[in-house]
Amino acid sequence: MPILQRAIELWYHDPACTTPVLKLMAELVHNRSQRLQFDVSSPNGILLFRETSKMITTYGNRILTLGEVPKDQVYGVKLKGVSVCFAMLKAVLSGNYVNFGVFRLYGDDALDNALQTFIKLLLSIPHSDLLDYPKLSQSFYSLLEVLTQDHMNFIASLEPHVVMYILSSISEGLTALDTMVCTGCCSSLDHIVTYLFKQLSRSTKKRPAPMASDDRFLHIMQQHPEMIQQMLSTVLNIIIFEDCRNQWSMSRPLLGLILLNEKYFADLRNSIVNSQPPEKQQAMHLCFENLMEGIERNLLTKNRDRFTQNLSVFRREVNDSMKNSTYGVNSNDMMS
């Protein structure tokens, strides 16, 4: 392992060296078919994560010193290695052989170093590149899904500009042609919305306290409601007007988005209804009424499943209604 680390240190700028080394490490930490099984008292999982963190940090910090890379070389020289690092981090975070609470308990900064390096690498990549390169987008959105599911406290502790960058990347990924990317974005958005909803519910029940990381995250969202509203419009637009190939995935964050933006959703609904020809408005209004029928103001599994069922009926009824309509709705109106 020290030889591989040293190779990354010396030849970080040469993808002919770094790519095979990074891929080897990514494959090593991938718990494929549960092949990595350590005894409950074994430190091997933690030691393996330490080495992984060291490699990601070493490569990440050095590759960022390259500065501006020509557009025609940026993938081979930089983004390919970054993509493998994202895949490596995702594999080790979701491998189920590391107890991550141990790191903070014993003051080990391996986890923090890996996550902070991920953020630095992410911020060095333009939004357009995240979707232009399929392997990069798949590894990034897969990693983001794991982070929002299991390490939401870390996401909540980030600076506002980083949070907005991540939310913007999710918003753009929702409309990606790659179904895997789109599904990953839906899952990440669902985790974020669920976290926000829980924090909002707690904040209304307790007295004001000094701002913690979760409160700060909630504050950022309250300062920039347009981001969540934009994603609500996007998801609803895709479900109603486009050939939605992953309707179930889209339905999961939609309920949380609606509950967090009830007034905006009401305005959106009225806009859609009013854009229909007069003879269709009542039917469209009824579709929206049926969508929320029996839905409670919570994100419990039973309530989510009920909403998903309602959404399937809603989409079918709306499509049937619009097939007979000569007007249709301008999807751009929904996004404004």
From TrEMBL:
> Which GO MF terms are attached to this record?
nuclear export signal receptor activity
Keywords, A to Z, come to:
Cytoplasm, Nucleus, Protein transport, Transport
GO BP: protein export from nucleus
Q: Where located?
A: Cytoplasm; Nucleus
Can you supply one Gene Ontology CC term for this chain's record?
nuclear pore
- Similarity comment: family membership: Belongs to the exportin family.
Protein name, as recorded: Exportin-7
Q: Which source organism?
A: Scophthalmus maximus (Turbot)
